[in-house]
Amino acid sequence: MKKSAQFLLLATTLLASLAAQAQRLPKAQHELLITPATAAWGYYDAAAQPVLRIKSGETVQVHTLLTSSPTRLEGAGVAPAQVEQSLRDIYDKVTNKGPGGHILTGPIFVEGAEPGDVLEVRIKAIELAIPYAYNGFGPKSGFIPEDFGYAKMKIIPLDKKRMVADFAPGIEIPLHPFFGSMGVAPPVAMGRVNSAPPGIFGGNLDNKDLVVGTTLYLPVHVPGALFFVGDGHAGQGNGEVDITALETSLVGNLEFIVHKDMHLTVPRAETPTHYISMGLNEDLTLASKQAVREMIDFLMKTKGMTKDDAYMLCSVAADLNVTQVVDGTRGAHMLLPKSIFDKKK
């Protein structure tokens, strides 16, 4: 059997399995499919019309697409039958495009959310929607384009049962699916914002720690928050150095909660085991400093620590990581383990 035929047979089998498993996602109060009518191509925008309205405390099963053209996927080796019809429909019918490249789902209007509030996004479940991912780079993108003056794409099979990516013979990558882009509308004055650089609204954070069981906190800038999501990754390394991860389509269950008593200037997050602060700047050093300052601020406000002690704790107990270095606005994040705090207090 030829290699292409083997891949088609494997992909067909895995698609059937994924379809069955998708039915086992925890029940959500709403479902949002990705179609030409619900896609926001390449932008975050306060003027975007909501495609779904929900109440605080409700959950949405949201479908997302990888960002690549059907033609490019087929050229890299994906069988035409394995290219999602929704991706073909969006490429054929969507003409309202922003300056960025991401195909996002949304926006979702959350009732009661007002500027100055915080939108909590709980990531309840994530499932693979297709049995493959891609990774690729171009001559003008990535962290070291001077070393790679050409474009290349690699199709990488995903084994849902074993939760590994078959990168190459003898190389398997554990899967940790997450949405690379989750954000709310930016302030009205910013207009339509490119989906590539992250910002105070969240967006293309590309933070590999935001997996199932974690929570993202986003400052709200417009009524209803207007939440967008996409850029599904089956896994990624810190830095995302060639500009892509294991790019794939995902289905996720997200719970949305509006907070009137929280006030943030940049996104924060929380896992079952760690607190996460974030920094965003074109200069990675300044992004890193912001992540540290945000953690100090968090410790002072929530743990009652002095500024000096908070700074010292960050140095002895927290890990400062490079989130990504390829999205124009670079990202850094700091993780502080919850286990160091007395649970009785």
Cα distance spanning the termini: 64 Å
CATH class of the largest domain: Mainly Beta
Overall domain count: 2
What is the average per-residue confidence, as pLDDT, rounded to a whole number? Answer: 94
Enumerate the strands of the largest sheet in spatial order, edge to edge or round the barrel.
1-5-17-7-15-18-19-21-20
Strand content: 25-35%
What is the CATH architecture term of the largest domain?
Sandwich
Q: What name goes with the CATH superfamily of the largest domain? A: Acetamidase/Formamidase-like domains
Q: Label the structural class.
A: alpha+beta
The Cα radius of gyration reads 20 Å
Shape: globular
Q: Which segments are poorly predicted (pLDDT under 50) over 5 or more consecutive residues?
A: 1-7, 18-23
What is the helix content?
Answer: 10-25%
Helices and strands, in order, run as: HEEEEEHHEEEEEEEEEEEEEEHHEE
Tally of helical segments: 5
- The overall strand count is 21
Provide the CATH topology of the largest domain.
Jelly Rolls
Describe the largest sheet. 9 strands, mixed
